Amino acid sequence: MTTEPHLLSLRIVVPPLGSRHGAVECRPIINGRDILADVFDEGPADDPRYLLGQHAPLHATDTPREVRLAEAECTEGCCGAVYVTIRREGQHVVWSGWRNPDEDDVDLPELRFDVNQYDAEVRRASTDRSWEWPARTVARLLEERLRERVGWLTTWECELGAVSAWHWEPDQISVFLFHPGRSAIREDRPWLQFRMTLPVSGDDPGDQAERLEACLTAEDPREVAEVCGGSKEFADQLGYPWPGPRRRA
Asked: CB–CB of 146/196 below 8 Å?
């Protein structure tokens, strides 16, 4: 008896803009059922920026790859996460090897998808940007432009971390940089993380990304950014002021 393949749908969930609650999620819906809701209530599904895109984890290959689908709101190390191993097997894509580091077992079966339906749905979800709000679009386009400029941060001894937009700050984006680079973290050398907060308007997102790129690459970004990560000891060694405690409004 041949079992019909499962049907995959990827649902993007966006909380109300300005709300401090919730997270942007990419939730896998299997045959109309939210499978994560059945087995994990400690936190949201992962953000689509990590699961989707041209080289994103949900793309299936002949080489099995373990992918995190959800993580606890606190941290994975505290209350767990949900992982699945994805592989391409002939005319099917297989999800198996379900795992939660915080539990002995994840009560989900092996799932098999028709490779054409699966690939089409991952492509659709990766290219559908209709759920983005303007700041999220500007952040995505700006990060793409900055990553294409190979070496622009070398002069400033910096490395691009990410360009982020959060739904609770719908009118701004944040650019994160590492100085001198993330390799310093691995090599146990002094390092700092910098953050630049940039306003976003109602202008065309592509035009805004182009203007912001020109401004950011024209001068040392550390001169206008604030230290947001590392340690006071590292800041002293690298010659930057360590931020004091924030005042409550």
From this structure: no
